[in-house]
Amino acid sequence: MNRRGQTQVVESILLVMITVALWTVIWIWFYPSYTGMVQGLTRQLNYYELSIGEWIVIEYVNYSGDSLYVYLTNTGEVELYLGSIYVNNTLVWSGSEKVRVDEFKCIPVTDYTLGGG
Prior knowledge:
By secondary structure, the protein is an alpha+beta fold. The chain folds into 2 domains: 1-52; 54-109. The chain is 44% helix and 35% strand. It has one helix at residues 2-52, and strands at 56-64, 67-74, 80-87, 90-99, 104-109. A 3-stranded antiparallel sheet has the order 1-2-5, with no helix packed on it. The chain has a two-stranded antiparallel sheet with strand order 3-4. A hairpin with a 2-residue loop joins β1 and β2 (67-74). It starts with a helix and ends in an 8-residue tail after the last strand.
C-alpha cells in the first residue's frame, strides 16, 4: 500500500514536469512570433500616424518661357519627400525633394509647354 502512494506521487510529478516542458517549448516558439507581430503592427501604426500629418500647399505657379516653377510649402507636422508633380494628369516632374516642416520651396519644371506635356 505504501508503494501505491509513491507511484501516484511520481506520476503527478512527471505529469507536472511534462506539462511545464511542453508549455516552455510552446512559449519559446510563440513569443518571438508574438513580439515580431506586435513590432510590425506598431511600425504600421506609426507610419499611418505620420502620414496623417502630411500637408503640402501649392503657394504659386509661375510659367516662364519653357519652364514651370512650382512654389510650395510643407504645412504639415512631419518632414516629407516630394516624389512627383502632375499637371492635368500628366507627369511633368519626378524625383525626390526633401521638404522640411514650414519650408517654402521652389521646384523648377523644365521643358514644359503650356499646352501640356
